[in-house]
Amino acid sequence: MYRLSVSPHIHSKASVSRIMWTFIVALMPAMAASIWFFGPRALYLEIISVATAVITELLTGLLLKKRITLSDGSAVITGLLVAFNMPVSVPYYVPIVGSFFGIAIVKQLFGGLGYNIFNPALAARVFVMFAWLPEMTTWNAPLTTSGFSKLAGFNFSIDTITTATPLAIAKMKGMAGLLTEFGSKMGMYKDLFLGKCPGCIGETSALALLLGAGLLLLTKIIRWPIPLSYLATVVLICLLSGNDPIFHLLSGGLILGAFFMATDYVTSPMTPKGMILFGVGCGLVTMVLRLKGGLPEGVSFSILFMNALAPLIDRYFKNPVLGVKT
Amino acid sequence: MKIQELSKGLFKENPILVLMLGLCPTLAVSTKAIYGIGMGAAVIFVLTCSNVIISLIKDFIPDKIRIPSYIVVIATFVTIVDYVMKAYTPELHKSLGIFIPLIVVNCIILGRAEAFAAKKNVLDSFFDGIGMGLGFTLALTLIAVIREILGAGTITLKLLGYGWIVEIPHLNPMIVMILPPGAFITIGLILGFSNILKKR
Asked: For the domain bounded by A16-316, which CATH number is listed?
């Protein structure tokens, strides 16, 4: 009747697989948006990427004689995020190589879930980006009629239209170029918020991503310090440098990165103070790369850069141990 | 005895894969197969000659200034290689660039001088130099071939118009493999595999 056990007696229901599967649910709106805006090919990319990630996890687990951790869903997340970070027109081998690289080399060879230094999905994205730069930077207009397709004067009897991403336009032509592309400033904000702009398939729709992020914040799977300090830093730098903060918040991979990738437990600091520093660093590097770098976008590089610093940040912001003088 | 000094450099004490020496030129020049062979040939020559000379004069060198003395000997042979390559294989010399003069401070050559040639007799040092040089060349060329196949889709074995360039069809090369990250990834994976093989 009375079971005797040692403490702790109160358990949280949180477990690795519960957290991971909630995370996957939170990615579903963005996945739906990617299929809505970019067509069935987006879905194929996601399926291929997830399948490769899962198979790679299984095979490397067997080869390295690790505990097989398929059921916790972390490989599914990596696969999904790898696909989210690609334009819709990439050849199918790109997500295959990307997912394989992310799981086999970045995650498993560094010790598996919980030991990897870098976010596997982001490292995979950067790897395939520098492997096949032309394929990874060919952007297609979304399938729904938007400012982009109207401007080109086509209807959708043709397959697709290649264009530049909003960030690339901003870099080359400035705000004036953006306004001719989108029509008006409010129209631009609306299109960027809904996701009607060219870009990686999972990053364009701020609305869908924020829905998922809201779920994660409500269930306390991710905490606010990293995303908030990240986004706040971006806004602050925009205001100081005279750029449009709303445009920079909504465009590129910032929302996907801030809520879904920078918050990865394994590769981000553990204490709230450390998290804030981590977010500020991400924001700083992102904006430096966006405003001064050679490529239009810098979210993935900034998060990877801060991943490398996360262990150092953890050393400086330790939680004080009760009763121990520091 | 002698054959051991020769063969240990190839696998058991391979300078790159086991001793982890000379990684700097390995990372930098392993982008084409021919660069690996060319760099390896230069290192074999310098390493063998310097090993022999240092082994010969080891009793005259005062202990306190032995490193500068080694450097003088090594630099002499590097200068010879540098000018010979400039004269006869200008193309290769241009591609290898600064890494030819940098052989002077290559860890393999200084390391073998300090750890081997300064203690052993001339014949052993000679074989050690050849073995270590060959081991370096083998590992470097292996890394270069892997990187070139993946990163450029070719295997270049062409020098001064002789030889050939093999092209691998139906391969969209991954440019990252001939960039610096590709070098680190390739070397890391090869080190891992060679460690697995060693454990068996």
From this structure: 1.10.3430
